Amino acid sequence: MVHAQRRFRLGVLGSGKGSNFVAIADAIQAGRVPAEVAVVLSDVESAGILQHARQRGLAAQYLPPGRFRTKLDEVAEASYLQALREAEVDLVVLAGFMRILKGEFLRAFEGRVVNIHPSLLPSFPGLEAWRQALDYGAKVAGCTVHLVDQGIDTGPILAQRAVAVRDGDTAASLHERVQEAERDLYPQVIGALARGEIQVHGRLTRGFRPPAVTE
Ligand code: GAR
């Protein structure tokens, strides 16, 4: 008997409205990303990402983050790991997950956790990066997809998209265009990872080079 080929399985973690998740799910549905969403997990019970996942009939679970504000505590980390292992996840996709992942978690999924950050790293790591860029007076903002390592927004860069800052931009208007770029870029990178097109050599990555600029 011929078995259907096993699909590349994504575990998506998010804390917010879930627009990146929707873009990824739509790209899968349209046949542009050869993967499936195995599970969606959130540290925020009311997060839009969980609602979007459930509307699509996907497994979606709120997992409490524990006693810290900016990271998962050990008990929570173990529960996230267990859920991802049970779902036989190949790649952990952070889509607006606002907690830092550390030691045990990253060791378990070494080189297999990917994040999108709303700036051109290494500029403006941390929170509200598009606002940091605007307040700094940068003329070019953007987004970065990178592998997650033990630092904060420091892992090897897989792809970046520049977004021009316009005169008169507000944090909200710039954020909207940065997110538009994210929704275009992130599914492309996940598609390339699912197809095994990207090679990682230390900090340098090769094999995938989408357009780097949005006007
Ligand atoms: C995205 O803009 C992403 O870049 C950002 O959270 C947003 C989530 O939006 N992530 C970070 O700032 C991580 N440091 P979404 O829930 O609509 O996808």
Question: What does this entry look like structurally?
Answer:
- The chain is an alpha/beta fold and 215 residues long.
- It folds into two domains: 1-110, Formyl transferase, N-terminal domain (Rossmann fold, 3-Layer(aba) Sandwich); 115-215, Formyl transferase, N-terminal domain (Rossmann fold, 3-Layer(aba) Sandwich), CATH 3.40.50.170.
- The chain is built from six helices and ten strands, in the order βαβαβαβαβαββαβββ.
- It has an eight-stranded mixed β-sheet with strand order 3-2-1-4-5-6-7-10, with helices on both faces. Strands 8-9 form a two-stranded antiparallel sheet.
- Helix 1 (19-29) runs parallel beside helix 6 (171-194).
- The longest helix has 24 residues, at 171-194.
- The mean pLDDT is 96.
- Bound molecules: glycinamide ribonucleotide (GAR).
- The site of glycinamide ribonucleotide has 14 residues, from helix 1, strand 5 and helix 6.
Concise account of the structure shown:
With 215 residues, the protein is an alpha/beta fold.
Q: Biggest sheet: strands side by side, in what order? A: 3-2-1-4-5-6-7-10
H/I helix tally: 6
CATH topology assignment of the largest domain: Rossmann fold
Stretches with pLDDT under 50, minimum 5 residues: none
Within CATH, the superfamily of the largest domain carries the name Formyl transferase, N-terminal domain
Helix content: 25-40%
Give the ligands present: glycinamide ribonucleotide
How is the main sheet built? 8 strands, mixed
Radius of gyration (Å): 17 Å
Distance between the termini: 51 Å
Mean pLDDT: 96
The CATH class assignment of the largest domain is Alpha Beta
Number of strands: 10
Shape type: globular
How many separate domains make up the residues?
A: 2
CATH architecture assignment of the largest domain:
3-Layer(aba) Sandwich
Order of helices and strands: EHEHEHEHEHEEHEEE
Percentage of residues in DSSP E strands: 15-25%
Structural class given helices, strands, pairing? alpha/beta
